[in-house]
Structures are given as C-alpha cells and as structure tokens.
Amino acid sequence: MLRFVKYGLMAVVVASGGGFLLLGLSFPSYLRTSATSVRQTVQDTVPIEFQLRRTRNLIDQVLPDLQSQVCIIAQDEVAIAGLESAIARDQARLESEQAALLSFRTQMRVQQVSFEVNGSKISREQMTERSVLAHEQEGAEMEIPLDRDTVSEEQVLLEYDRYFSDGAEIQPDAKSTMFND
Questions:
Q1: Looking at the domain assignment, is residue 36 inside a domain?
Q2: What are the C-alpha distances in Å from 138 to residues 32, 46, 106?
Q3: Taking a C-beta distance cutoff of 8 angstroms, is the pair 131, 159 a contact?
Q4: For the chain, what is the mean pLDDT?
Q5: Would you say residue 68 lies in a domain?
Q6: CA dihedral over 127, 132, 138, 140, signed as positive or negative
Q7: Domain region containing 152
Q8: What angle do CA 166, 171, 175 make, to 5 degrees?
Q9: One-letter-per-residue 3-state SS of 73-132
Q10: How far is CA 46 from CA 33, 38, 42, 58, 60, in A?
C-alpha cells in the first residue's frame, strides 16, 4: 500500500517537472484550462432531466428558508410601521406641548391680572403660589423670592423655563402636575 502512494507521488512530481520544463511558467494555466474542459465535458454528459430534478431538489431545500425570511421581513415591516406611527404621535405631542409652552410663555410676558392654563383661568397670585408649591413638591430650591407680592413676571417666567427645561411637560388634555391644587 505504501508502495502505491510512493509511486503515485513520484509520478506527480515527474509529471509536474516535465510540464514546467516543456511549458514553462504557463504550466498552471494549462492545468486549469484542462481541468475546466474535463469538468465541462462531464457536465455536458449529464442528461437534462437529471439536471432538472437536481434543480427542483435544490429549490425544495431553499424554499422553507426563503419563506421564513419573507415572514421575518413582513414582521419587521409591521414593527417599523408601528414605530413610525409612534414617532409621528410623539412628534405631534411634542409640537402641541411646544405650542402650549410658547402660549404660556407669551402670557407670562404680558402683565395680566389672570391667565388661562389648560382651559381654566387662574389669577396671577394663584399662578405664583402654584409655581412655588410645585417647586417645593419637586424639592427644588426656589430662585424667586417667597414674598408673592414682590415676584415679577420675568422671575416667574425664568422659574417656569427652568422647570420645563428639567423635563417637565405640559399636558394639553389634563392639568399639568405643576398646576395641581
């Protein structure tokens, strides 16, 4: 057995050496071309019916994976549509809250006796008191004086700006936590 391996290896070495001597450095190209030609000849001898059966078997093997991938893609598309609608809802809510904040800021810049917040009218003193109470409930230190008679609109506006920049939101449908009694 070892003798056949030894003779076979020697035959390959002699054939390779002879090929390089006769054909030079283009010998590997001749080998590749010969191998391709032999492969093509073998493929041409295979009957078409056999190739069709082979192709059907390959399709049958791939089809379940393809169907599962289509199902996954459909689920991902539904999830993406849900996320897009959630983003649109959040964007609309953000715009609504920004409009409410802008309206509130505009009201605070104008000296008025009373203000309208979330559909209810409150006096300037009530708004100042609620501002102070809301900040005390939040545990924030007040930057405006506690004497409600000396509080200016600008100070209240600055305090509200600071409150909303900390992440508080105006709820247009319900009373905000800042204005709870």
A1: no
A2: 80, 83, 24
A3: yes
A4: 76
A5: no
A6: positive
A7: 77-179
A8: 110
A9: HHHHHHHHHHHHHHHHHHHHHHHHHHHHHHHHHHHHHCCCCEEEECCEEEEHHHHHHHHH
A10: 20, 13, 7, 17, 21
For residue 69, tell me if it sits in a domain.
Answer: no
- Residue 145 to residue 133: CA distance in whole angstroms: 13
Cβ 124 vs Cβ 114: under 8 Å: yes
3-class DSSP assignment, residue 147: coil
Which of 2-11, 66-75, 101-110, 124-133 holds the top average pLDDT?
Answer: 66-75
Residue 16 counted as domain residue: no
pLDDT tens digit string along 63-112? 999 999 999 999 999 999 889 989 999 999 999 888 888 877 777 676 66
The predicted model scores a pTM of 0.37
- How many structural domains comprise the chain? 1
